[in-house]
């Protein structure tokens, strides 16, 4: 076992900026510092081990110690460690990967644009829509509709189309080109007495109203996850996608499918549209699982009809004005090729399909627990929503933060879960097996007991 050098108490922290963290408390309270990985576990600087039950941010699909991927990277580093894919030049591994990807994606004759993160891939999807519409003679058609309470990345564009008003305000974002509709979260967003079918019809009508109000000639794209993972894991009710898609088709609006989390195995297939939606989007983005996150790597996938529109804009002098020095990085490409090979050699998608019912059973076993308001599970992920009222006055005080409180208790027990408001989510590495799920749910139960006791004592 490698020895772990323990850093001095706050060494390196004073000058570190960490996102989604309290910048002030970071200066006085040391964050969790991970030193190494072992399968689905991470080990901190003091040697304490944690199961990463949400695969970091749903991204560590092969866990934290897959040496096959390290080997693939090392081999490529020795052969050709970098090269920019642009200006009519590229590398052989990028060509090989493009062939492998297009054969596995649900869009026939799709075109692949490479970049380094889900954030970038989503930003470019909006940019490509604008470009295509400029050269299709409808430049005004550039606004984007997305859904409240969603997350699509961290650039100015992505932060704007993520539906969090507080975030729009704190970064003074110009929101002129963005509109929002309700998340298809039936449990939390339904009206009193509303059936699922009525809820779906109301959301489709809302989409149509938003389009009409903005002017259909100004709306270029609808941007959404196929299953809302970023809003706390809320599977859309049956009929939601056909109803929404019918509205989009009526107004010539491109459907952009954010598969940054759902893509590459999370739903037991290469993408969620394969088995969940039953129809094809116009653009699609993949990141996270595509390289198992062993390298910053992502793609924007463009359907052939959209690409044909983009072809009209090819400038004679400069060609297509878009590239990035590190886009299509050869080491990243070599890792993604190995990810695809390993997924097939080891039948990872089949394994995920076997584990989905195991995970769902473990999640729904919490139904009826005195402290639980709702349970949700879809693909290889599940959420339990805590009922703050069940924890007495202390629970009420922590309403909206109960997920975070449970995470803190679980971490003491060696389990990292993903908090979201009053829910916690699990979505382990794809490689997790039945024994791992048993351990995850046992630790979660211990964490819950600790939280109940702590709140009762307070
Ligand atoms: N889209 C979704 C749905 C995401 O969850 C995320 C990241 N959590 C992103 C996009 C952004 O991806 P990245 O963090 O790789 O930039």
UniProtKB/TrEMBL annotation:
- Name of the protein described by the UniProt record: Aminotransferase class III-fold pyridoxal phosphate-dependent enzyme
Keyword Membrane tagged: no
> Could you tell me which Gene3D superfamilies the record lists for this protein?
Aspartate Aminotransferase, domain 1 (3.90.1150.10), Type I PLP-dependent aspartate aminotransferase-like (Major domain) (3.40.640.10)
- Which region is the signal sequence? none
Q: Which domain of life is it from?
A: Bacteria
InterPro entries recorded? Aminotrans_3 (IPR005814), PyrdxlP-dep_Trfase (IPR015424), PyrdxlP-dep_Trfase_major (IPR015421), PyrdxlP-dep_Trfase_small (IPR015422)
Q: Does the keyword Transferase apply?
A: yes
Q: Which keywords does UniProt give here? A: Aminotransferase, Pyridoxal phosphate, Transferase
Molecular function terms from GO: transaminase activity
Family according to the record = Belongs to the class-III pyridoxal-phosphate-dependent aminotransferase family.
